[in-house]
Amino acid sequence: PPRAHKIVKPDRTVRGVKAEINYKYYNPNYFQPGSENFTYVEDSRTGRKIYMNNGILFVFANKDDSFTSIGSDMNVSTGKLAHYNETKRKESLIEGQMIYIERKKLNGIRDTYTVQPNDTWYAISQFTGVQINALKELNAVVGEHAPKPGTVLNLKGNVKRTFLQRLFGKN
Question: Which of 33, 73, 114, 134 could disulfide-link 37, Cβ–Cβ 3.0 to 4.6 Å?
Fold first, then answer.
């Protein structure tokens, strides 16, 4: 079986305040796939390993990383990184968390994804490289509750794009 990384609450403080993980994004028991599940592309100029998933480049967060530190290493703004990863720029990152350095797509490379125990919409989106709203639209889902384990989600189909997505988007 593939090796996985358990996402755990970091045991560190930031300016005297314990860093908290927003479990809207990750369930405390979620196991994220390891690097062996993705295509290795190259090492960045700073030594970070760059991987590809669904045709999108990403890195794994290191211990004590932030969007600022990854953005600096990858020459991508903090705001863009947070936007690409559908989270807030001040959100704490967890060692081993997938951080996309390009915009996620509206369709997946695979046709379907089977929901695993402890998956959240965010975790499914990060694993598949498909935007959260696109996942919900492809599967006619309303609300924030993640589907039950064993549910098969469609990753391909027609997703309505906004005017700005059509004007500036690649996917």
Answer: 33
E strand or H helix that includes residue 45: none
CA distance 84 to 169: 12
Contact 84, 101 (CB under 8 A): yes
123 near 94, Cβ under 8 Å? no
pLDDT at 24 over 50: no
Mean per-residue pLDDT over the chain, rounded: 79
**Residue ranges with strand state E in 34-76:** 39-43, 49-53, 56-60
Neighbours of 61 (CB within 10 A): 20
| pTM score over 0.85 | no
Q: Are 156 and 108 in contact (CB under 8 A)?
A: yes
Q: Which regions of 74-114 does DSSP assign to beta strands (E)?
A: 98-100, 112-114
